[in-house]
Amino acid sequence: MHPKLSRAARWLLCCGGPASGEDLSDEGSGSLRWGFSLRELRSATNSFNYDNKIGEGPFGSVYWGQVWDGSQIAVKRLKNSKNGTEVEFASEVEILGRIRHKNLLSFRGYCADGPERILVYDYMANSSLYAHLHGPLSAECLLDWRRRASIAIGAARALLYLHHHATPQIIHGSIKATNVLLDLDFQAHVGDFGLIKLIPDGMDHEKITSENQRGYLAPEYIMFGKPTAGCDIYSFGIILLELTSGKRPIEKSGSVKTYGIRNWVLPLAKEGRYDEIADSKLSDKFSESELKRMVLVGLACTHSEPEKRPTMLEVVPLLKGESKETLLKLEREELFRPDSTVSSQGTSTPEGSTDSAPRKDQELGGA
Description:
The chain is an alpha+beta fold. About 35% of the residues lie in helices and about 15% in strands. It has a six-stranded mixed sheet with strand order 1-5-6-4-3-2, with helices on both faces. It has a two-stranded antiparallel sheet with strand order 7-8. The protein has a two-stranded antiparallel ribbon with strand order 9-10. Helix 5 runs antiparallel to helix 8 and helix 9 packs across helix 11. It is globular and about 65 Å long.
């Protein structure tokens, strides 16, 4: 353990992180080890063997590992991390150890050895939301409606904590289905929070983000390249629409045209055709009122005007069904009126294609 961080590390080990504005039951319970040696992580991952690799993202590769006590870990070997001393890197990642919430991926520690910069997290046995909706686990149909509703609320609570209770406030900047991890009980744990801070100042943050956020980027981020809480909320809204429909954020229709999920869902929601939005894999086994609620909140979160999006303080009670008056007010918004064209116009996607709303009888390309 580096001497500069010994006090902070001891405090974290004893106390499990700082108290937040939320109830203490929301704090994470994962164990914080803090310091790992490169030798130990090589042993845990079989020398970062390809067969141990479980993911690849803009920040680096992720490997499954098992440490001496038998516990499983996820080891993120960073690429393009800031080339600084061990002390500088440790100072940057110290904040990750302070952020503790049951719906955030638990951070166990780090390794800074020579050029290596490695982060260690709890291993999530059920992979990611992406894997279950669109990836290798989608054929197994393990996400029934009860699990989807729980995942939505869990991920929302994680963002609520980052935006309103973490000190300092954290803008995630990379909310997407691959960063919503699922544990053995299919509870949501949001990962990759705070990693934007580790990208070197000389690198193109916008390029790194846009290349890995197809369909999730808010219009203002595409225009200005600056992540905000509103951008996180927009991305989360896309995830809600994915959970309800099973569609990808961007689908191809034909050889050239692409459609964004929001502009496919919105016309159907305006006409109250929620049964047509529902993922066919649910086999009509879902709560109509809950699905409608999730769709409405998802569309509100993806409003093209940032100031008209709800905050996460509003989103969580809406998803939990605790704000019925607010939901009714939301349903009466101009955005959802059948004759309204507000916020349903095409917007430029990161690929430069056009998100345009399909005709009422036009389907998206298959998910």
